Amino acid sequence: MKTTATIAFMGLLLLASGRLLAQQTFPIYTGTVPDSQPSAVQETSVTLANGGVRISNVVQPNLTAFLPAAGTANGTAVIICPGGGYTRLSIDSEGYDVAKRLNEFGVTAFVLKYRLPNDESQVDKSIAPLLDAQQALRLVRQQAAKYNVNPERIGLMGFSAGGHLAAWAGTQFARPVGDNVGPASVRPAFLVLMYPVISFSDTLKHTGSRDNLLGKTPSAAQIRQYSNELQVTAQTPPTFLVHAQDDKTVPVNNSIVFYQACLRHGVPAEMHLYPKGGHGFGLNNKTTKDLWTDRLRNWLDANGWLSK
């Protein structure tokens, strides 16, 4: 048996470390992308010196599916929203790498390349990311049988600004955005929020994320609407949070206020705070031997999401 091989199959099939890993990339919309307008904006992809990939100016949002090894899928799926301050997507370290780790749990993972707010290519940049996240939830739910996924076990994970998007989708599902909402539910079964931007309040905001999504002079009503800790209800999905106390980019209190809101509304929540680690550590916080993915696996298992 070959240890590595590349085979075309609805995208790309990779045989690595003796097991088959399927990657299938497909658009989330057919036809015209909603909330879009003609422009000269073109997607750009930059590979950093360390091999990291950053994508900007997304105009055609898509999903890349990562499938667990044959026979190991347990029916749970997670849609991953990479971070990047609503200006770029850290699609590898906060997307593809995480998807592969989730596959080891038997979880089917979908990395969402969502549109970043852009006045040139979007009619209303303040709703474009949420449109894409909600459509991704609809699409995975509609295609659940194809991927051997339980449509009631589709969660949403987000990192940094992607965490804002995940929390946004997890608190606004009762009022889907866009004109063609359809009957499919856009409520995630659970949320995984990694050093998330939660609040757009002056004291907790990540300035870049708020400015990119709402502009430099948002109204008080907009700030409240986009501050996810103020939108939690008893229907908010169970939530898992991870943050570092010394995060200088997104203050740790973002996670804390969301956890407190969950407590007030009786939403099951688990939070892991590390003394150090800074921001954007992805899979591995190098300041500790503890792996947050082990904590996540335990949480998923305790809630029955790893059972077949």
TrEMBL record:
Alphabetized, the UniProt keywords read:
Hydrolase, Signal
Segment forming the signal sequence: 1-22
Q: Name one GO molecular function term.
A: hydrolase activity
Outline the extent of the BD-FAE-like domain. Answer: 66-260
Its recorded name reads: Alpha/beta hydrolase
